[in-house]
Amino acid sequence: xxxxxxxxxxxxxxxxxxxxxxxxxxxxxxxxxxxxxxxxxxxxxxxxxxxxxxxxxxxxxxxxxxxxxxxxxxxxxxxxxxxxxxxxxxxxxxxxxxxxxxxxxxxxxxxxxxxxxxxxxxxx
Amino acid sequence: xxxxxxxxxxxxxxxxxxxxxxxxxxxxxxxxxxxxxxxxxxxxxxxxxxxxxxxxxxxxxxxxxxxxxxxxxxxxxxxxxxxxxxxxxxxxxxxxxxxxxxxxxxxxxxxxxxxxxxxxxxxxxxxxxxxxxxxxxxxxxxxxxxxxxxxxxxxxxxxxxxxxxxxxxxxxxxxxxxxxxxxxxxxxxxxxxxxxxxxxxxxxxxxxxxxxxxxxxxxxxxxxxxxxxxxxxxxxxxxxxxxxxxxxxxxxxxxxxxxxxxxxxxxxxxxxxxxxxxxxxxxxxxxxxxxxxxxxxxxxxxxxxxxxxxxxxxxxxxxxxxxxxxxxxxxxxxxxxxxxxxxxxxxxxxxxxxxxxxxxxxxxxxxxxxxxxxxxxxxxxxxxxxxxxxxxxxxxxxxxxxxxxxxxxxxxxxxxxxxxxxxxxxxxxxxxxxxxxxxxxxxxxxxxxxxxxxxxxxxxxxxxxxxxxxxxxxxxxxxxxx
Lengths: 124, 482
Known about the structure:
The complex is a heterodimer.
Chain A: E1 3-6, E2 11-16, E3 19-24, H1 26-32, E4 35-39, E5 46-47, E6 52-58, E7 62-66, E8 71-76, H2 79-82, H3 86-89, E9 98-102, E10 112-113, H4 114-122
Antiparallel strand pairs in A: 1-2, 1-10, 2-3, 3-9, 4-6, 5-8, 6-7, 8-9
Chain B: H1 45-57, H2 80-86, H3 106-123, E1 127-129, H4 135-152, E2 161-165, H5 171-178, E3 182-186, H6 196-202, E4 207-213, H7 225-234, E5 238-242, E6 262-264, H8 267-270, E7 285-287, E8 299-302, E9 308-311, H9 328-364, E10 380-383, H10 385-388, H11 394-403, E11 410-411, E12 420-423, H12 431-450, H13 452-457, H14 469-474
Parallel strand pairs in B: 2-3, 2-4, 4-5, 5-6
Antiparallel strand pairs in B: 1-7, 6-7, 8-9, 10-12, 11-12
């Protein structure tokens, strides 16, 4: 079973071995409202932890999506190009955005577990 | 109401063109000819006049109603300013560029020169270019000037970052990014301004500029502004002033006096000229002395004999940023506005704008959450969070206002306030207008508790009801026929 970790900016990463899929939390999707566009990075792009990885637009606003961990983009979810509404329907399952090759798993210490994230949401 | 296309009847004509008595020019190549006629509406002159007259009656404008759109400074545009612009209408825009032409447009060049001097005085800058055509264009020009300044000092590759607060207008980071800089965003502290401690941590010698709006988009004047300027300058970073909110501080504070090096001014906001489709706008840029060599060419300068000349071809200039001298008629209107009001009048403008915003803030804060509860400047930002407890969002309040005959305030901006409702009344509205608007805002807050569905259904009095904004954004197909 893949472990899920969260950032304070409401991204999640599901880690499976040396790779991880990245998306935004259900809370974030709800706050953004109806998603209209997801801008995905190029495959092969390398990012540092908390660098801008992708961007998302909703009826209300445009926001950056930050990389939960450093790594290289292995794959992107191209289905989101035509059906961005998937983010509203299934933010933490079907609407993964980027698959990263993780370069330093020690950075996980900077992220929150599911329980910690749930607690964090209560403070907002 | 029917579309003009739906009124079309085959063969109906508004005008009949006489047979051409000019010989046909050379035949156009076959591949450039239309295969079928353009699908233009065929209507009579009367059909056409009625259609557009009826459309215009559905228009909403400052000339019909109150327009409290936050961050936009929708003040009344005095009609006399149109007369001022019309005075210049006979002059051809190319005149100054012809050999010897400068002699024939001393008045026009003098007006631009004087406007630059007056804007420099108001903002505390040393010289102003009137070329940029809008606020964002002014920002772009300003950032290019900053880049040219660093390049001239041999720091082109060293300067990589531009710092912006998270409350900034989106055009700030966009302009800096297009100019090749990376953006560092500094969060807002609980006191409503850029967090000064986080700002200190973000600063380093690779920062090219700090872009600020002051008062910021929460309508709050930053008490640390001089300290921020000093810190920026200690890292050889320049201070950029986004003039979007200049209407709050005219005659009170000159941005140049608190350390700003570059500023753009939105004439269509602060100086009473029309916005957007009624405009166009204009975004003159002012700079401190050290940046004058980089200003767009041609510069308008005055010689010892008091003649206005065009100075061109200076090395170091970022080049032209617009054709001719910018949106000339807008300058003429802004010039007339400043002359008419004078120094005392401009101070009164800012005082009244701030008073009006605070009046609305104080009267509405019992009904709407005020996340930053302090004296505001020219605008105030509420949150619809109390209404959200009844399932009512800021957008629902906005749509309800439409039903009551008001243009909605800005909603969902600034991004740092949840369910933001940003109200900027401007100085040109009377207390009676503000009171009537406040009553409707209170009615919206009450209705959110008693009958939220009414707000969800709004607007119901308009030609079209609630628009599906999601569908509009996802399916961007605006083809109306065929």
